[in-house]
């Protein structure tokens, strides 16, 4: 009879542990998924900002006799812009290339309507993402304008402001959902742990009544919490990266390839899983340590 009771208790304990691990894994899977989305959203936000360019123009006055001298001056100016300005990418556009692009945009194949070198050479500058900001764009343009050899700088500031505001709005929504999932992770994992500790409330109180110190009682529960939290986190991470690998293999590799960011995400998910599990275990166990014996039947 005693053996059957022990086997029943072991099965119930095993079932409780499995339930906790699955709960942790599912919650951390969703939390990690939001983390991956946030990382890639930030990357694509920066990518879009880098597509917004500023055009810095050289002097329109051009004399073919001084072409070598002008070419050297423009080359020096191009290097200075890359050094002095907050440039992510800079492209030199010669007079010939500017004329070709103008003809292409107008749909004209003939050279009859164009005089030679009618368009000035320029530099197409993609600013660093942090400078595509209404408060910093003027500073970047001022730096580019101050470079000797640059006579005019043009940009579509209204477009940059609109893109900046829309991207920030999207990132804030994604960040908000990530924080919401973090709160849900805390609540759901805490509830699972509380149910597990609740089933052991009489054991906890019995140990306390026979003289066991609180630290002694807490220790095995904390060790078990660390193990369950780690197992649940690992399962959640394996499922997360399995799904993500399948998704990227179907869509393509146009996602963040920075392994350092993934490494920090793994540490974050693992740390959150273990921390919440241990904290919930301590709080739930401490509650029953402070509860009177009679109250255990009504907890």
Automatic annotation (TrEMBL):
Domain ABC3 transporter permease C-terminal: 177-292
GO BP term, pick one: cell division
Subcellular location: Cell inner membrane; Cell membrane
Keywords: Cell cycle, Cell division, Cell inner membrane, Cell membrane, Membrane, Transmembrane, Transmembrane helix
Mode of membrane association: Multi-pass membrane protein
Transmembrane portions of the chain: 20-39, 170-193, 221-247, 262-289
Primary location group: membrane
Span of domain FtsX extracellular: 54-153
Assigned GO CC terms: plasma membrane
Keyword Transmembrane belongs to the record: yes
Family: Belongs to the ABC-4 integral membrane protein family. FtsX subfamily.
Cited function: Required for cell division and gliding motility.
Name of the featured protein: Cell division protein FtsX
Organism: Chryseobacterium taiwanense
Taxon lineage: Bacteria, Pseudomonadati, Bacteroidota, Flavobacteriia, Flavobacteriales
């Amino acid at each position: 009879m005693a053996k059957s009771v022990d086997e029943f208790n072991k099965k119930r304990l095993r079932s409780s542990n499995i339930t906790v691990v699955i709960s942790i894994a599912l919650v951390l899977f969703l939390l990690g998924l939001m983390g991956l989305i946030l990382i890639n959203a930030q990357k694509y936000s920066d990518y879009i900002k880098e597509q917004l360019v500023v055009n810095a123009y050289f002097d329109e006055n051009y004399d073919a006799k001084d072409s070598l001298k002008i070419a050297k001056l423009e080359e020096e100016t191009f290097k200075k812009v890359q050094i002095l300005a907050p440039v992510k990418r800079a492209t030199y556009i010669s007079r010939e290339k500017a004329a070709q692009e103008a003809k292409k945009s107008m749909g004209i194949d003939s050279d009859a309507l164009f005089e030679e070198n009618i368009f000035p050479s320029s530099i197409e500058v993609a600013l660093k993402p942090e400078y595509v900001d209404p408060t910093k764009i003027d500073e970047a343009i001022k730096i580019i304008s101050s470079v000797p050899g640059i006579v005019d700088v043009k940009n579509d500031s209204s477009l940059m402001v609109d893109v900046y505001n829309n991207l920030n709005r999207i990132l804030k929504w994604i960040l908000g959902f990530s924080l919401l999932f973090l709160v849900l992770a805390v609540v759901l994992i805490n509830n699972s742990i509380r149910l597990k500790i609740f089933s052991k409330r009489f054991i906890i109180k019995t140990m306390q009544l026979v003289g066991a110190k609180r630290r002694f009682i807490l220790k095995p529960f904390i060790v078990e919490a660390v193990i369950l939290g780690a197992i649940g986190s690992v399962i959640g991470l394996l499922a997360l990266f399995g799904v993500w690998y399948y998704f990227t293999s179907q869509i393509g590799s146009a996602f963040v390839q920075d392994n350092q960011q993934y490494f920090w995400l793994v540490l974050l998910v693992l740390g959150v899983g273990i921390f919440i599990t241990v904290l919930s275990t301590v709080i739930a166990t401490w509650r029953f340590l402070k509860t009177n014996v009679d109250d255990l039947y009504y907890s």
